[in-house]
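Re: the multi-chain job from yesterday

Posting the exact lines I submitted so nobody has to dig through the queue logs.
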Amino acid sequence: MKQFSISLLVVLLMFSCKQGPKTSEGEPGPVAQLATSSEEGKKLMETKCYLCHNPSVGEHDQRIGPPMVAVKAHYLDAYQDRESFVAAIMEFVKSPSEDNSKMRGAVRRFGIMPTQQFPEDEVRKIAEYLYDFQIDEPDWFREHWMDRRGDSLYNRGKKPEAVPVKQIPKEMGMKYALETKKVLGKNLMGTIQNKGVEEAVVFCNEQAYPLTDSMSTNFNARIKRVSDKPRNPENAANTTELAHIETFKDQVAAGGSIEPILTEEDGKVYFYYPIVTNSMCLNCHGTPGKTIQPQVVQHLSQLYPDDKATGYDVDEVRGIWSIVFDAPADSN
Ligand code: HEC
Ligand code: HEC
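And the result, structure tokens for all chains:
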């Protein structure tokens, strides 16, 4: 009885092993939405074939299959035109056999490629990509190939297209805001440390606009800092901006994470994000006579007779970034 159950178990295990690969085959991520078909071919090759044909895995003698460039080189050697190159690769992948093989050395070294179920149209895209584009190759390959065949065109084709980075309005706006903040903040801190708060007031007075403007030019965007209680009257928020300031005030008071507000109109993105105080800001936006030194108060009132930007504590909405830029072409 015991004997019997063990052999039954073995049989069952064998069965489940046989069936294993089919069900456990990891589905690669979706590739259909990729921008260009060449990108699709590359992605397919990397997800379906690089398991064994990866150019950068291990040393020459730790590999489990030839790097893809070796496959390409042998097939280019045997087939001159694109059509027969693609057909031969598809043929081999469909039913790997020694009769089909163009790589006797690889078969001897690694054993024949295991038969696997790859959708035909995917293999076609991979083969076309191989033919059309230069692919990554391990360092040792060129010398290895040149020694044997002396043909330097084994990896010919177009250079792979640079993948266009998908521009996302929210990320673009955040980048513009944070980079500008960094530039302003770095210069402001530097001036405070080296020359004191009074000089820093002069710095803000003279440099806040030119620095922000240069970042606008840099990013091809209109970048502004606006406030419901502006120091410089030029920075007064308009009606829309005032409404967003109120929204952000509620969010900041409630704690939690703060998301920018974005709207799109006539191909333009309007981006808003709060500017929140920290203790450093209180040197010039805090309470006169308390956190703002008397000399600084004097300085400020000379430069900004209509200054409304005092009386702040930390973690308050001092104003917002109001940034306008062209909507990226592929956003909707
Ligand atoms: C599980 C490992 C494995 C995977 C995955 C794999 N291959 Fe292979 N392949 C091999 C091995 C090992 C060889 C070398 C032995 C041989 O030539 O059969 C090989 C060789 C080849 C050859 C040359 C065959 C010859 O001898 O002429 C082609 C063409 C090929 N692979 C295409 C592909 C393509 C395309 C993919 C992806 C869709 C792929 N392989 C995925 C293991 C793999
Ligand atoms: C050294 C003094 C000083 C410090 C410190 C300072 N500011 Fe200002 N801030 C100014 C001056 C001066 C202006 C007006 C600039 C101008 O004329 O465009 C200003 C303007 C602003 C504006 C534009 C709206 C307005 O009121 O005109 C914002 C927003 C702002 N500051 C936020 C901050 C924040 C946030 C901090 C801390 C991280 C800070 N400031 C620290 C002096 C300072």
